[in-house]
Amino acid sequence: MTRITDTSSTLVSPEQLASMMGTEPLVIIDTRDADTYAAGHLPGAVNLREIFTFLATSNAEGLTALKDNFAQSFGNIGLSGAETAVFYEDALNSGYGQSCRGYYLLTWLGYPKIAVLNGGFSAWKAQGLPVSTEVPAPTATTFPSTLEGADVMLTKDDVAAALHTDIKLLDVRDIDEWTGESSSPYGKDFAPRKGRLPGAKWIEWYRFMKPSAQGPVFKSALEVQAECATAGIAPTDTVYLYCFKGARASNTFLALKQAGFTDVRMYFGSWNEWSRDASLPIETDAPLLKPKAMPLALAA
Questions:
Q1: What is the CATH number of the domain that holds 175?
Q2: Which of 31, 127, 176, 287 could form a disulfide with 182 if both were Cys (CB 3.0 to 4.6 A apart)?
């Protein structure tokens, strides 16, 4: 089976997706909550909310459970390897990257055909495309077990080993989490510790998107590269991403991959796992710019 690695084909517009419907086998996956899905969704879309809600730990047992759970779930909705999996959420700036979390999980599992609706359900509606309330009955199949997964998953041990090295550790959480005012998007004290990973750089995940007539969409490759340059990160760097539970970082993962970054991996357990292990170091001081050393010629 040929593995699609050209991520420029991963992001599809509403018009492209409408054209794909009926011309090739698709499984369209709505990652929103059940009530929102029931109020209206893309025709033929199945609802799989656990794309967003499933929490994982990065030890061997946790990753095995993650793999087994989603192999079962993806098989139940009809992914056999022949179909293109198309994920969407409401809008790219309001669903915390949940559709991209689906893209990341299938990338990790080695699935060959993955797409994300650029702009989400809001962009679909903005184009006047059809919306349905009918709930399809997908034909369950066996998710392929012979796929070669991609090396994009990091454990907390991988991240701990990368601290204070040349690897670029990138925090993409919201600003109140980065500054240590809050521990998570679910409440200030949801996690036991506030702060950030030592030495991490920060680019808030929203910065990889821009407004359009159809709502927020991903920035171009050059624009994404420019955003990363502000944090000293180049497309040739090894980049380790994290957020709280791997959703917003999945949004950034896709943004960086489509922008030509060659070695991007994600700590899926993210702050939700790291903050709960008191033996792991964190930074809690105000994230102020450290002054550069004065050249010797000027200091004399």
A1: 3.40.250.10
A2: 176
